[in-house]
User: Fold this.
Amino acid sequence: MRSHPVRRAGIETRWLALAVAALVLATPHGTAASDEFAAPRAAMVRLIEQLGWGSKKPVGHENIDPRVLAVMGKVPRHEFVPEDLRDAAYANRPLPIGYGQTISQPLIVAMMTDLLQLEPDHVVLEVGTGSGYHAAVVAGLARRVYTIEIVPALAEMSARRLRRMGYDNVEVRAGDGYYGWQSAAPFDRILVTAAAGHVPPPLIEQLRPGGRMVIPVGGAFLLQHLVLVEKDAAGSIRTRQLLPVSFVPLTRAK
Assistant:
């Protein structure tokens, strides 16, 4: 993803976010304060807060939601990257996870999660499980997460990892995410973590009226934009291009 200008957040918001983050460290899925990665994880959260939306902020998104920052201060990102990259786990950049896939940079994870405007009763579909990190972040804010991964080996590894870490509200399956997860639909929110050439019609169909979808749209090695899709109560769709991004392409089943 392209870089964003640094912007100093308000002092009140900053301290609220850090206070909430400190409180949730002891909750389920949290990491003990003595964890050796606690300091770099806290530094990552501070950087995300400082960068925020910068000059790219959408209407209604002055700063990253403190709840998102709090959850990201709890989820141990180092558990979701290859062991030889753990020292770089909290750097603000994407990292390879194998099979031609990456774990997104923390700032873009925060932005996409912020755009979803998650509530505790929401049911979420994620297309592109990858390492399972973004599903873990969303799981800390929503009731249930269904996540689909096209690479069977990644789906299996992520499912095992999430179970081991106690994310009982996440269900993983291997499959073509373009078609969504019809048996679990409709979804309050849909998150797509790979770039599609267009917004897949099955995902629009499976989005609940009043729901939101966040998806990168554009071709591989071409200009991509993060797009917010909103479905109103009558089922009408509105889309907004928000900012340029760079994602691996959405892989389709052959």
Q: What stands out?
A: The domain at 11-245 is CATH 3.40.50.150 (Rossmann fold). Residues 80 and 131 are 6 Å apart (CA to CA). The radius of gyration is 17 Å.
